[in-house]
Amino acid sequence: MRTALLASVVALFASFPAQAQDFPKRPITMIVPFAAGGPTDTVARVTAENMSRLLGQSIIVENIAGAGGTTGSLRAVRADPDGHTLLLHHLGLATAVTLYRKLAFDPTTDLKPVGVVSDANMAIIARPDYAAATMAELAADIRKRGDQITFAHAGLGAASQLCGMLLMSQLQKQMTVVPFRGGGPVLQALTGKQVDLGCEQATTAAPQVQSNSVKAYAVTSASRLPSMPTVPTAAEGGVNGLEISVWHGLYVPAKTPDAIVQILSKALGEALRDPTLVKRFADIATDPTPTKATPAALAATLKSDIERWRPLINAAGQYAD
Ligand code: MLT
User: Fold this and answer.
1) How would residue 4 be classed by pLDDT, with cut points 50, 70 and 90?
2) Which of 82, 94, 134, 175 has its CA 20 to 30 A from that of 313?
3) Which CATH architecture has domain 2-120+246-316?
């Protein structure tokens, strides 16, 4: 199996212009625009490990956090377009276009898509000793004393912030929002009882829920998740309009040669089909998306989410700048 895969990648290499034929010629950097320990970091490390085996070069994950993922994204935009710098980010790249009115880059022109990596739902979670017993009770508590409740997220534009924005909009009540530099620090603050609520991707929330380190009230999927079968959907809990799934995508700087993008996209697609990766993603409630591991699929996903989130963010009237 692996020999055949390697043979197909080698055959693909041979059909490329010289600049791509010796690619990659040194270790690759994969920028994760959030702190270590969060879902983006987790997806990146598993993906990088599998892609590096196929490309024959190590892929080093570099966490460059800040400003809801835009700091790390800008670093990728400005990197040498030689294929040795990648960005792994999620739907926050789509929402940044509206949230950051002075955004220093345009993700649709300053980055080149390689492919969609994964998809994961989210869960509304709380510190383990939070009093509410159900989503309905939590919603009533937020409506009653929202400003006394702290809601932690991973920065303006992070999936957790978008989830919180939708939750507060549906309940028509603001909570006290506390930003962190990634989902990892958010989960630490929740398990440490330093904040009250959060909304995190099942990728990292599911293990914490299963170990009772945090309390889960609802999932943001249309149906219950196998990783948290006893946790109802938000709709079952009486809160509609809270369906969010978080896709992750892989990008390179815009001027990266298409031949190199093709090599990266093929390696991504093969990595996402690898049985070890599929098992590891399943263990963290995350779905690999090999059929969408193409530049066209990621470009379409990014474009549709820019359009989907623009009116929601404008209606909430909360901007980063
Ligand atoms: C988010 O809220 O977007 C994520 O938790 C950030 C991360 O992947 O750390």
Assistant:
1) confident
2) 134
3) 3-Layer(aba) Sandwich (3.40)
Task: Please give the number of the atom of ligand 1 that sits closest to the Cα of 182.
Answer: 9
Which residue lies with its CA nearest to atom 4 of ligand 1? 183
Q: Report the CATH architecture of 122-219.
A: 3-Layer(aba) Sandwich (3.40)
d(Cα 70, Cα 122) in Å, to the nearest integer? 21
Question: With contact defined as beta carbons under 8 Å apart, do 184 and 33 qualify?
Answer: no
User: For residue range 44-91, what is the model confidence (pLDDT) as tens digits?
Assistant: 999 999 999 999 999 999 999 999 999 999 999 999 999 999 999 999
State the pTM of this model.
Answer: 0.91
Q: Is 198 near ligand 1, meaning CB less than 6 Å away? A: no
Domain ranges of the chain: 2-120+246-316, 122-219
Using the mean position of ligand 1's atoms as its centre, give its distance from the Cα of residue 180 in Å.
9
Tell whether ligand 1 has an atom less than 6 A from the beta carbon of residue 165. Answer: no
Closest ligand 1 atom to residue 157 Cα is 3
Distance 258 CA to ligand 1 centre (A): 29
- Calculate how far, in angstroms, residue 314's C-alpha sits from the geometric centre of ligand 1: 22
